[in-house]
Specification:
With about 625 residues, this protein is an alpha+beta fold. The chain has helices at about 5-25, 70, 195-230, 235-250, 260, 265-290, 300-320, 325-350, 355-380, 390-430, 435-460, 470-485, 500-505, 510-525, 550-565, 590-610, and strands spanning about 35, 40, 55, 55-65, 80-85, 100-110, 120-125, 130-135, 135-140, 160-165, 170-180, 190-195, 465, 490-495, 530-535, 540-545, 565-570, 575, 580-585, 615.
Length: about 625
């Protein structure tokens, strides 16, 4: 089994592992939902060794009050109800206040069975500072809860909370204040269950984070190594940066592990890193797809993505989290549009039968679905998990799988060619030395003859520059380059002034001498990449690749002045020479014959205006 085939088998195993991990993460819907009603949730008979239960539904809420458990009953008449999980909208309680900034107290009564083992609650991110009481006891305090921005200090600390309930009724009281973020309150579900179940869930989450982040960073390093070996190809670099952004997000989005390394890291820094990594990932994702499907992609969308990301990032950095809800929503909508556009490009590539489109489409569809899931989850439209990292892992594997298949095909083709070459070498060695000498001799003669014939067919016999037949293949190549990459070119049509008079007065030998002199002048002026040919009689065509009309005019004017400055002696008479030059630049959807026609019209116009001048066709149709 060759190396490429072993790579394919290994990738099959990795593909299965990543898809299995993705399926495990989708298992969030397996847990039955038991809603709280009027601040009470009945979980009797629901907590077991197999699942955690979300504390969702209708919680009691005391707006603009920070109440202790002892004060809840005293203020029961002022309670409202609020849905959990959901960012609070305080304007529903007071139309004159900001929808996100303020404070209040959540309360939930939990009815459970009697347990002889500890119960645990997983506390997610609560925006943005809170105190949590279990019955009468203060059990968790994150940040500093206050009634104003000055007295509130936000923090980030998702964590488990272990309970030893002494009776089957547990009261949760959570004081929350938020003045630094545009989402406040219990935006994510608290989940309750047996300690062993919660421990398993946390371990699974940690393993997923380590696996995905390590995988993304490994792919990033691998692609950076590829880029260092071939820097002319930007694809590995762009993909490495894309993996870096998603790897960073994996560490800061709903991940308390990062606090083990940076315990003083604030919520503002984490949320800023979360948003910025998302903004930049959209850019690199779009740019990578452009590089892969360049023949179908419109670069305008890539530039637009860079611009939108720059605006959103600048707004977040300058104004902080105060406008984060606007910048995030803007980029989320744009990301959805980008996913739709990439799917459209994949359809075009599939119809064009571009190699590898199917396997790339599989990875792209899974990644696109995960991105849509993440956006809807962040917008609180659905309750699931962040899955873009798993989608990226599948997408990366699809690219690697395609590379391995191509490598295997190349290896087999190389092996076949090697056998054929070995057989031919044996046959050649069996030939006599005399036959080899004759073959070499005849081959050399044929090469010289072909070279001579090619030169006669493509070059003008008098001036030794290209003739029209030799110029046409070069024109076709330049036209194809223009149609493929939009790299323009210009042409200059040179016509000697009063050449017929020179021929009539001094004869064709003198005319030939004049033509050679003109060719020598032009050859000394033009660049190496420019192509010069005799088009017919005293007309010459100059092809100027990657040159606009202004550059072509400047070069033509230099030629005209150089010709004007020479004086030739013919039959003891000094004669002056001049040329009229018509210049035109290729336009969109135009063929070379049309450019030549415009240049010819410009030359004719120059003749009518008195000759010895350069005329550019800028605006004529």
């Amino acid at each position: 089994m060759n190396l490429a085939q072993r790579m394919i088998n290994s990738l099959n195993v990795l593909f299965f592992i990543v898809l299995s991990g993705l399926a495990i993460n989708f298992n969030v819907s397996a847990e039955p939902v038991h809603k709280a009603v009027d601040g009470v949730i009945d979980l009797r008979g629901q907590i077991n060794e197999h699942r955690l239960v979300s504390l969702e539904g209708e919680w009691d809420f005391f707006y603009n009050q920070l109440l202790s458990p002892q004060e809840i009953e005293q203020h029961i008449s002022s309670k409202k109800h609020i849905d959990v999980p959901k960012s609070w909208d305080l304007s529903t309680f007071d139309p004159d206040v900001d929808f996100a900034r303020g404070y209040g107290t959540y309360h939930l009564k939990i009815l459970m069975d009697d347990f002889d083992q500890p119960i645990a609650i997983y506390i997610p991110v609560i925006n943005s500072a809170y105190r949590l009481f279990v019955d009468q006891d203060l059990r968790v305090e994150v940040g500093e809860v206050g009634t104003s921005e000055a007295s509130t200090s936000p923090h980030y600390a998702p964590q488990p909370l272990i309970l030893f309930p002494e009776n089957p009724e547990v009261n949760l009281t959570i004081q929350v204040s938020n003045y630094g973020y545009n989402w406040g309150g219990l935006a994510k579900s608290l989940r309750i269950g047996k300690l062993l179940v919660l421990s398993y869930e946390i371990k699974k989450q940690v393993m997923n984070k380590i696996f995905i982040s390590g995988f993304l960073f490994a792919i990033m390093i691998y692609n950076l190594a590829l880029f260092s070996l071939r820097r002319s190809n930007p694809v590995p670099l762009i993909f490495a940066l894309f993996c870096l952004c998603l790897g960073i997000r994996e560490y800061v989005v709903e991940n308390y592990l990062i606090l083990n390394y940076f315990p003083t890291l604030g919520i503002r820094s984490l949320l800023t890193a979360d948003h910025l990594s998302f903004f930049i990932a959209v850019v690199f994702g779009m740019h990578f797809n452009y590089l892969i499907f360049k023949q179908h992609f419109n670069f305008f969308f890539v530039k637009t993505t860079y611009f939108c990301s720059l605006v959103a990032s600048a707004g977040l950095i300058i104004f902080g989290l105060n406008i984060s809800h606007i910048t995030l929503l803007f980029m989320q909508i744009y990301a959805l549009f980008s996913v739709a556009y990439v799917f459209y490009i994949l359809i075009l590539a599939y119809r064009a039968k571009q190699k590898g489109t199917r396997i790339m489409a599989l990875g792209s569809v899974i990644l696109g679905f995960c991105i849509i899931n993440d956006i809807l989850y962040a917008m609180e439209i659905i309750q699931s998990k962040y899955l873009a990292s798993f989608g990226t892992a599948v997408y990366v594997l699809s690219q690697s799988y395609l590379t391995a298949i191509n490598l295997n095909k190349g290896f087999m083709r190389s092996k076949l060619l090697s056998k054929k070459l070995e057989k031919q070498n044996i046959e050649l060695k069996n030939l006599t030395q005399q036959q080899e000498d004759k073959i070499i001799e005849r081959t050399n003669e044929l090469a010289l003859a072909n070279k001579h014939l090619e030169q006669l067919a493509h070059n003008d016999a008098l001036t030794e520059i290209l003739n029209r037949h030799g110029m046409l293949p070069i024109i076709e190549q330049e036209q194809a380059r223009f149609e493929r990459n939009q790299v323009g070119y210009s042409i200059a049509l040179l016509d000697l002034d009063h050449f017929k008079c020179i021929n009539d007065k001094f004869g064709h030998i003198a005319g030939d001498k004049v033509l050679k002199a003109i060719v020598d002048i032009v050859k000394n002026i033009i660049r190496d990449q420019d192509q010069f040919s005799r088009w017919g009689g005293d007309e010459f065509v100059l092809l100027l690749p990657d040159t606009d009309i202004d550059g072509a005019k400047k070069l033509a004017e230099k030629i005209r002045r150089s010709v004007e400055q020479i004086s030739m002696s013919i039959e003891y008479q000094q004669i002056s020479l001049s040329v009229t030059i018509g210049v035109a630049e290729i336009r969109a959807n135009e063929q070379f014959s049309e450019v030549l026609k415009r240049a010819d019209k410009a030359t004719f116009k120059g003749k009518e205006q008195g000759s010895n001048q350069v005329v550019c066709d800028r605006f004529s149709n």
